[in-house]
Amino acid sequence: MVIRPESIQAIGDEIVILWEGGKETFYKMDVLRAESPSAENKGESDLMGNRIGGTDQTSFPGIKVTGWENIGGYAIQFYFSDGHNTGLFSYELLLELAE
Q1: How far does Cα 34 stand from its chain's mean position?
Q2: How far apart (Å, rounded) are the C-alpha atoms in residues 13 and 46?
Q3: Which of 25, 98, 20, 33 is nearest to 68 (CA)?
Q4: This prediction's pTM
C-alpha cells in the first residue's frame, strides 16, 4: 500500500510533508536538491552499468524549493531556485530520505 501525502508546506528552509496516517517528515531544501534522482543530477547507466553524466556536486547551499506538484499518485516534482526541476521524488524515496 502506498502512503500518500496529505499536505506539503514550505517552512523556512524546509519542506514539511504530512502523510496519510499522521506521520510528518521534514526535508532541508538544499538536501532535496542534492538528492534529486534526475539524470542531470545522478547520471544514467549504460548497458555495462557505467555512469554517464550527472554531477559530482553534493552540496547546494542556499538553494530553495520554489514550488512543487504531485505527479500521478506516486511522486512529487520539486522546482528549485537554480532552475532544476527534472527529478521526480517517488513517495518511497521521500520516506527513505526522512529516515
Answers
A1: 8
A2: 36
A3: 33
A4: 0.88
Mean pLDDT by 10 residues, the chain (99 residues): 92 97 97 91 80 80 96 96 95 95
Question: Which cell numbers in the block locate residue 82?
Answer: 537554480
Helix, strand, coil shares, percent, the chain, to 5: 15, 40, 45
What is the identity of the amino acid at 11?
I
Other beta carbons within 10 angstroms of residue 62's beta carbon come to: 10
CA pair distance 10, 51, nearest whole angstrom: 33
Q: Determine phi and psi for 28, rounding to 5 degrees.
A: -65, 135
Q: Given this model, what pLDDT does residue 27 score?
A: 98
Which strands, in side-by-side order, build the sheet including 5-11? 5-11, 14-19, 24-28
